[in-house]
Amino acid sequence: MRDPRDVLIRPVMTEKTMREKEERNTVAFRVRPDANKVEIRAAVEAVFNVKVAAVRTASYEGKLKRMGRFAGRRPDWKKAVVTLAPGHKIDLVEGA
Q1: Closest Cα to residue 10, out of 32, 36, 37?
Q2: d(CA 14, CA 69)
Q3: CA distance 62 to 73
Q4: In 3-state terms, what secondary structure has residue 9?
Q5: Are the beta carbons of 45 and 51 closer than 8 angstroms?
Q6: What domains sit in the chain, N to C, each tagged with a CATH number?
Q7: Distance CA 51, CA 85 (A)
Q8: Which of 3, 67, 70, 85 is most deeply packed, by most CB within 10 A?
Q9: C-beta separation of 89 from 49 below 8 A
Q10: What is the mean pLDDT of residues 62-82?
Q11: CA dist., res. 93 & res. 50, Å (int)
């Protein structure tokens, strides 16, 4: 089993994920592409000391990017949407 802080890369904080956090008690994280749902659940429970109800994952291909005539691509990445059990919440940095 990996260290929990190696599995979670950073929270995904967009308007959509903030709305989901308020309405459905979910938090989105960018995670390692080779992490599975069991590892993600264990990492969130260990790092934030909360109970996880469900984990949904989505894999994304990196976008093609150009620098002049040279084409490259951003790395592939994975997002995990973690639903917390009722009564549990994670306080991430919000607003200014």
Answers
A1: 32
A2: 32
A3: 6
A4: strand
A5: yes
A6: 4-84 (3.30.70.330)
A7: 6
A8: 85
A9: no
A10: 95
A11: 17
Cα separation values, 53 from 61, 89, 95, Å: 27, 12, 27
Pairing, β 64-67 against β 52-60: unpaired
Q: Which residues of 29-67 are buried (b: 16+ CB within 10 A; e: fewer)?
A: bebbeebeeebbbebbbeebebebeebebeeeeeeeeee
pLDDT at 96: 45
Percent of the chain with pLDDT over 90: 84
CB atoms within 10 A of CB 83: 15
* Residue that is written with structure tokens 């264990």 in the block: 42
In the three-class reduction of DSSP (H, G, I as helix; E, B as strand; rest coil), residue 5 is classed as helix
Please enumerate in sequence order all residues whose Cβ is within 8 A of that of 12, keeping only pairs 6 or more positions apart, or say none: 28, 29, 30, 79
